[in-house]
Amino acid sequence: MKKSKQQTETVIEAIDLTLGYDDFILLKNINFSVKKGEIFAILGGSGCGKSTVLKHLTGLYDPLKGDVLINGTSIVNAEKEEKNALMRQFGILYQSGALFSSMTIEENIAMPLHEFTDLSENIIAAMAQVKLSLVGLEGFEGFAPSEISGGMKKRAGLARAMSLDPQILFFDEPSAGLDPISSADLDKLILELRKATGTTMVIVTHELDSIFTIADRVIILDKESKGIIAEGNPKDLRDNSTNPWVKEFLNRSDMRN
Question: How far apart are CA 151 and CA 143, in angstroms?
């Protein structure tokens, strides 16, 4: 089947990235790309550098070597103003949801709109309501984060990440701390949002059920070789990879799709 232009357009490109701290090299000369509208997952064992890669893709860290292009523009070499503009194209959902406890759910979602736009209070409130509706939290706008469940906090954090209509959403272990039902509900929501908005999504996770449910393509990082040892559709890699470690890693769950 012929791929659409959206499926082939590159929005993130990592070029010869070497990542580490001072003299410690975590990953060396890695290359990969993320296509528009794709759900792309970064996998690997503990300590392989998954979250570190995410922080470099979002411009929070600079690589020891190499470059990250966002829609063809280097976020590594960009001047401050241009870098900030690039970063405003991102939405990030952190493990905890990272909601401000002193604010209501609506106030948390509205905060980026207050900070980065000149919209009126009425329009900001309306936009916050739209985002709450997208994640299934209508009616909870006046609640404090302490008054809602863990799964709802993740949904509220996702609504806030989407407040500026980002081109790319980044997720750092989105299912962490959730029970299996809440985790499955979040996976369903992620797929629904991609279908509704066409947003490109990059996810760091270790949850195999989620990987097989939502990911179009994955890379698997390896701590020993300090590189990428597999790339492709997760089910294809699970069933057909010739790398014994990759096969074992992707077959450690009872779930089969």
Answer: 14
